[in-house]
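I am sending you the entry underneath: sequence plus fold tokens. Let me know what the token row says about the fold:
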Amino acid sequence: MSRSRKIILAAAILGLLACVLSLALYFRSAGEAQRAFDRLAEKRPILNSAGFEAPEAPAPALLEEPAEEERPFNPDCIAWVSIPDTMLNYPVMQRQGSNQYYLRRDFYGEYSQSGTPFLDLASDLSDPESPLYIFGHNMKSGTMFAVLLRYRSADFLAEHPVVELETAEGMRRYEIFAAIETETGADELGIYDFAADPARDMQAFCAFLQEKALYSTGVQPEGQLLLLVTCTNSYDEAGRFFVAAHRIE
């Protein structure tokens, strides 16, 4: 084998090892984040608990992290979202003044590749007329909002038709009526604009979502809207997947 071929082969092997290492670190990080969420799920820290201020920037790693049970709850946590019998079971954050603060931060405001699901600032949890937009990552490990893409199948929807949202006032239940996949992002379709539109027409908007849906569900939405949003990774960075539901209580 010539010297040039040996160099090319060595470079290819090094590149492959780098990819394997990067993937291993990705799954390790996602696994650690998921275990932290599982521990939080046992406490369901909602109600905007006092005594916690999330840092403005990721805090430096400490030699000794405080025990999880000793760490104060985060007042940015305003709800808990779950889909029964799936892995989707997470806190929902809302950081005033920063719509994407938790895009790459964990429950305590420290850097995390998985981020933490968050409620759009245009959504008002206390207003029964306000549509709720909750964003979460589609992790390759299958955690966070990755399960949403399984709603490409009508059979999966038939088995998991309800989203639960626990708030300070109690549990809310939402029935899914549409699963929408976009290639170009939601801004061009106007999906994101609906929440902030004072003249919004819910009936027309729901009809639009049902028109864009992957399949018909036969559900006629009537109550408050809830949209769970994640990326698809199927097309490009603009690809988005929406699960739209309406409150049934």
About this structure: The chain has one domain: 71-247. The mean pLDDT is 81.
